[in-house]
Amino acid sequence: MSFGISAGQVAVMFLLMGLGWLCYRLKWLQDEAIKGMTKLLMFIVTPVVIVQAFLRPFDPARLQVIGATFLLDLGVFAVTIGIARLLFTRRLIPDPGRRVALRFGTTYSNGGFIGIPLAQALLGDDGVFYVVAFVVTFHVFVWTHGDGLFGGNREGARGNRLLEVLLNPNIIATAIGLVLFVASLQLPGLLVQAAGYVSAMNAPLSMIVIGANLAAIGVRSVFRDRDAWLGTAARNLAVPAVFVALFTLVPLDPTAKMATLIAISAPVGAFLVMFCVLYERDTRFPTRLLTLSTLAAIVTIPAVLGVASLVW
User: Alpha-carbon distance 115 to 128, whole Å?
Assistant: First the structure.
């Protein structure tokens, strides 16, 4: 069942990317529009998605497992950052732009768009909640470590680094969401409905942005890039394989472990291209890497989950 579900999610992603490709080819989307859509996604839509994920009744019995899952996720990202640095050294990847893209792509998966629906189908609502814990941890790291990879050398960035992180809308949204969940606070119905509409924009807009960037580089170049194949192997196979092995040693609820592995096994995250757009970096190689990784996920996600079910 996991093969059909994961393949279906990837197919939906490519259909949405196709819309972006078409709009760019028809010249309905220009560079300024793409950059504006990227900012809308990163600073409005994504924070709303985070808050909405926490809008559920507080369950004291689940708190301990959720806390352990957060700790596990912190460890996951710390280990993955180390793996990315070990794999993509200056000697192997001399070009600094490609090296940053490969390290970022290896560390940060598309665990939200692919992970949440897949966990829902395979594990139910509990699985979704554990993937949400992963997604929240993702945003803590992506807006600190990940943002630093792309924007750490901006003028004045170092001196105001902590303040920038604390005032980032995604970090603020995480804090608000945690308060809402722990206190079991209920937002007004109209506000919840509006949040639902905004959250629904997340997947379509992100894939349209990526599709537009793909139209600018050409599809054939995706399969001819050696470094894109290296990054795909790292993101789709090497990193999940490490955690299939490590999770055998972790005494955690099986559903929580499998949900976390689903998020880890997702392809390169859309944030790679969006950060490049935001910081006006070259998007050609990141788009190739993301596209190839996403296509390969049709096979690699079911394979990883199948091995994990046998090992665990």
Answer: 8
DSSP-derived secondary structure letter, 28: S
Residue 153 has pLDDT above 60, yes or no: no
Mean pLDDT, residues 87-92: 95
- The pLDDT tens digits of the residues spanning 244-274 come to 999 999 888 888 899 999 999 999 988 898 8
End-to-end CA distance of the chain: 18
pTM for this structure?
A: 0.81
Distances (CA, A) of 117 to 114, 186, 302: 6, 25, 14
Q: Please, are residues 271 and 108 in contact by the beta-carbon 8 Å criterion?
A: yes
Q: What is the 3-state secondary structure (H, E, C) of 137-183?
A: HHHHHHHHHHHHHHHCCCCCCCCCHHHHHHCCHHHHHHHHHHHHHHH
pLDDT at residue 1 in the model: 45
Which amino acid is present at 44? Answer: I
| Rounded Cα gap, residues 217 and 200, in angstroms | 28
Q: Which domains does the chain have, with CATH numbers?
A: 2-311 (1.20.1530.20)
Q: Are 256 and 130 in contact (CB under 8 A)?
A: yes
**Predicted confidence band of residue 238 (pLDDT cuts 50, 70, 90):** very high
Distances (CA, A) of 10 to 6, 73, 223, 300: 6, 24, 17, 12
**Which has the minimum average pLDDT: 120-129, 226-235, 262-271, 287-296?**
120-129
The residues near 295 (Cβ < 8 Å, ≥ 6 apart) are: 10, 14
Q: Which of 70-84, 150-164, 268-282 has the lowest mean pLDDT?
A: 150-164
Report which DSSP code applies to 269: -
In whole angstroms, how far apart are CA 72 and each of 16, 65, 292, 309? 32, 10, 28, 19
Nearest CA among 102, 137, 133 for reference residue 252: 133
CA distances for 98 relative to 36, 89, 283, angstroms = 24, 11, 10
